[in-house]
Amino acid sequence: MLSKGLVLMTNCATPIIVVLSGDDAYGFRDFGDLILSTNYPTESIRAGDNVVFLIEGGDIPITHRVIKLHEKNDGSIKFLTHGDGNHIDDRGLYSSGQLWLERKDIIGKVKGYVPYIGLIIILLAKFPLLNLLISVTIGGIS
Amino acid sequence: MHSFLSRLNTLFAFTISVLAVLTIGVFISTYFEKYHETVSIGVNKPIVKHMTDYSANRKKNDLGVLQLNLDMNLNQLFDWNVKVLFLYLIAEYVTPTNSLNQVVLWDKIIRRGENARIYLHDIATKYYFWDDGENLRSNNVTLSLAWNIIPNAGRLLHVPANGSTSFIFSDQYTTSRAASPKSSS
């Protein structure tokens, strides 16, 4: 559904993400918000950044904040993420035995945010018939 | 334009257009805003403990313990495109094995409308200051505050505050019996 041009431009496989679980509930990442992210390889990720990552073997991207970062002298970096509204860090979400995220697990860095627009996308995805209904109604009126 | 449905359609389309224009307007009008502010950070009694980190690799790592003083007034930052401010305090340091370490020690959420004056004295860090190894003794650590501007719509900005501070950890380990953050030693 996303234009391939946008994927190329942002270098990110999932440049637009709709938030499905609004567990933070403080005005950011609420249910139905739209998040725009990029994944430029030259851009460094620092503590405090909101990153999009995939757990190995997982298929749902998670958007959380980096709270710890250790970069070794050889250039390898490990990250720990934490959901803003959660009491504990994300280690429980990582695959068993995994304590840190690596750069390859991170598929994007959150850059922009538009509220509520995602609700329409969620609605259309959940009720494919709605698509048909809207098209028919608009076709009938105009 | 007489039928009920066509009126409803027009109203709906108009509402969406107005909302879209407002959203874009809010985004463009604050695009060049810098959101800088000065803060005051202080550190008391930085000590290093050597303990087993059960939350990570279950080895004995260095644990830094310190108390923070934070003083700032961020009411000026809330313009019409700032919904929430997410503040975070980063401790940044270098060790012989790691060229860069960043650990968030404290964070806070300030929603629009809440009081954005912060005056905290002698508070413990919100998160544990575990090192990835055993290299905190005599280490020069820089504490800097930054905020994540969460807009109504637009870019998610990370702005570093003016006013960071540095401190050096003690060169000896402190055992739990000798000192805890609340005792005066």
TrEMBL record, chain A:
Upper lineage: Eukaryota, Metazoa, Spiralia, Gnathifera, Rotifera
Gene Ontology biological-process entries: signal peptide processing
TM segment ranges: 113-141
Keywords: Membrane, Transmembrane, Transmembrane helix
Protein name in UniProt: Signal peptidase complex catalytic subunit SEC11
Organism domain of life: Eukaryota
GO CC annotation terms, alphabetical: signal peptidase complex
Source species: Adineta steineri
NCBIfam families for this protein: sigpep_I_arch
InterPro entries per the UniProt record, alphabetical: Peptidase_S26B (IPR001733)
Compartments, record wording: Endoplasmic reticulum membrane
Main location: endoplasmic reticulum
Gene Ontology MF, one: peptidase activity
Membrane topology designation: Single-pass type II membrane protein
Role according to the record: Catalytic component of the signal peptidase complex (SPC) which catalyzes the cleavage of N-terminal signal sequences from nascent proteins as they are translocated into the lumen of the endoplasmic reticulum. Specifically cleaves N-terminal signal peptides that contain a hydrophobic alpha-helix (h-region) shorter than 18-20 amino acids.
From TrEMBL, chain B:
Keyword Membrane: yes
Keywords: Endoplasmic reticulum, Membrane, Signal-anchor, Transmembrane, Transmembrane helix
Membrane topology of this protein: Single-pass type II membrane protein
Organism: Adineta steineri
Gene Ontology cellular-component annotations: signal peptidase complex
GO biological process, one term: signal peptide processing
InterPro entries in the cross-refs: SPC3
Domain of life: Eukaryota
Name of the protein: Signal peptidase complex subunit 3
Similarity remark: Belongs to the SPCS3 family.
Functional description taken from the UniProt entry: Essential component of the signal peptidase complex (SPC) which catalyzes the cleavage of N-terminal signal sequences from nascent proteins as they are translocated into the lumen of the endoplasmic reticulum. Essential for the SPC catalytic activity, possibly by stabilizing and positioning the active center of the complex close to the lumenal surface.
Source taxonomy: Eukaryota, Metazoa, Spiralia, Gnathifera, Rotifera
Bilayer-crossing regions: 12-32
Pfam families: SPC22
Cellular compartment(s): Endoplasmic reticulum membrane
